[in-house]
Amino acid sequence: MTFRPLIKTIPLSLLASAFAVSTVLGAEYVSVVKDGVNLRSGPNTNTDILYQLPSGYPLEILSKEGQWLKVSDYEGDKGYITESLVSKTPYVIVKVKECNIRSGPSANDSVVGKGVKDVIFKKVEQKGDWIKISHPDLTGWVQKDLVWP
């Protein structure tokens, strides 16, 4: 009896698991630095403008081509934006019709306001499944499943 195949299988399984975890944890997000930034169909200024994005709009980086980033938003729309027009400052966007903003990181905390779909909040901190957010007129906590990313 030989154990060689089993020994080869275990490291490959561990390697596959490690790759899967790094892929999930490896997502990188940025936010638009000012209002009216163009999201383009290709990595140069001669391509079509797909959308004009507001300040704070969060994006996931898919790849990089020179000074251009290929990005995706919470609805899966993809395009290109120059690196100089984004920052690492974390923002989130409400992805549901309406959500409660609470005074603390618990469903038992009082409601201090409402968030509606497509409203952008600055992410202040995170505690478990709750994100502390701020907006010029409101600061509070929201369940992370209700916002993106």
UniProtKB/TrEMBL annotation:
Asked whether the UniProt record includes Acetylation among its keywords, one would answer no
According to the entry, every stretch annotated as the SH3b domain falls at: 26-90
This protein's source sits in the domain of life called Bacteria
Gene3D superfamilies for this protein: SH3 Domains (2.30.30.40)
Pfam families for this protein: SH3_3 (PF08239), SH3_4 (PF06347)
S-adenosyl-L-methionine listed as a keyword? no
This protein's UniProt keywords: Signal
Segment forming the signal sequence? 1-26
Listed name of the protein: SH3 type 3 domain protein
Originating organism: Desulfobulbus propionicus (strain ATCC 33891 / DSM 2032 / VKM B-1956 / 1pr3)
